[in-house]
Each structure stands twice: as C-alpha cells, then as structure tokens.
C-alpha cells in the first residue's frame, strides 16, 4: 500500500506529540516543570533587572554629585543582605544598608543624633538632624522625606563645628588648642574674632566618631578658664 506524503506528515506530527506527552507523564515528579518554579525564575530575573537599573541610576547620580564638588558615599550593596547592619556611609535608609547619601552642611549630623533623610534630585539622600531648622520648617508629609537611622557599626570620622564664647583674655586660644590636642582630637579649621561686647568668639571644626565623644570634648572645653559657653554651630547646646 502506497501512502501519500501529505498524509504522512500529520501522522508523524501526531506520533511525536503523543511521544512527548508520554515522556512527560513518565518523567520523575522532581523533574516536571511547574508553574511555581517558572514564577520563581521570573521573579529572580525581574529582581536582577531592577538591581541593574538601580545601580545605573546611582552611578549617574554619583557622577553628577562629584562634578558639583559634593562629598558623597556611593552604594556598595551586595546581592545578599549583610549579617550585620553596616554601611559605607554609616547610614541606613528605609532598611537599605548602602544607599547613596550625603550629610547636610546646615546641621552636620553625627552618629547618635536623631536623623531623617530627604531625597534630593540627582544627589541621593541628604541626611539632616531631626531638629535641624530646615527640617522643622519643612513639610514632612512629602514623600521625599524618608526614615533613616545610624548603622550598628560606624567606623567613619565626622566633622563637627563648635562655637566657643569666652572672655577676651591672653592665652585663651592656646588653652583651647592644647585641650583639643591632649584629647587627640583632629582640628580641621580654627578661627577666632572679637565680638562687639569684647568677648572672644572661637569657631573650630574637629573630627569625631560620635555624639558621645563630642559631648565629652565640649564638656572639657567648658572647664577652660574664661569660657562662657560652648555649643555646636547653629544648633542648641548638647
């Protein structure tokens, strides 16, 4: 019996389909494809694409910040969550360990201060003290304000500026300098001027690790003879 070639093709196709179906039925349960596994693979791929897009956006923001002269801390987050809450900048934004952040110059927050973050346009998250005048007078209902906190381990050094008011006596500047030197405190800037009421106004920017150290330094400065007041610049006394 001679069969038409056109009739052979459907039969062959049906035979292959039947064979595939039988093979699928005979496949061990652990090797059968499932909708759950497919969905899992799709979720992994979407996560990977989202991570690449976030890294690209952070890179562009960092380049823009660097070109403007700002000091920024780039993201170095890994794909897996770290065992300890540590970040390059020392700040965790909305539960994310390593986020592009910069510390605002209006209040110069240090570890131990209560802080809040503001999402800037192209410069990451700007970190402010909660009692900063720019925060107190702001509309906190805006979705550009985000929750922030200090990481459990912060190894960075932070700059903080202190205003010292004292009597205009000889040797006051030397006493302030010696006190800071004895405490091994790095000095970044040191300025002094005479006020209208014949007092000395000394403004010094130092490097510290946290709020506790800053309070200790300020306490020592208050003990210097002739010093009337010591406080953080543009902020309430701590």
Pick out its properties.
single chain, 238 residues, alpha+beta, Alpha-Beta Plaits, 2 domains, five-stranded mixed beta sheet, four-stranded antiparallel beta sheet, 5 helices, 9 strands, 34% helix
Major sheet: arrangement of strands: 1-5-3-4-2
Provide the helix percentage.
25-40%
Distance between the ends: 104 Å
Average of per-residue pLDDT values: 76
The major beta sheet can be summarized as: 5 strands, mixed
Sequence stretches where pLDDT stays below 50 over 5 or more residues: 5-22, 29-33, 73-85
Number of helices: 5
Counting structural domains, the number is 2
Question: Could you tell me the radius of gyration in angstroms?
Answer: 31 Å
Verbal overview:
The chain is an alpha+beta fold. It folds into two domains: 36-76 and 85-156, no CATH class; 158-232, ACT domain (Alpha-Beta Plaits, 2-Layer Sandwich), CATH 3.30.70.260. 34% of the residues lie in helices and 24% in strands. It is built from five helices and nine strands. The protein has helices at residues 5-26, 35-67, 133-136, 172-182, 211-222, and strands spanning 91-93, 101-103, 115-119, 125-129, 145-150, 158-167, 187-194, 199-208, 227-232. β3 (115-119) and β4 (125-129) form a beta hairpin. The relative contact order is 0.10.
What is this entry, summarized?
The chain is an alpha+beta fold. It has helices at residues 5-26, 35-67, 133-136, 172-182, 211-222; strands spanning 91-93, 101-103, 115-119, 125-129, 145-150, 158-167, 187-194, 199-208, 227-232.
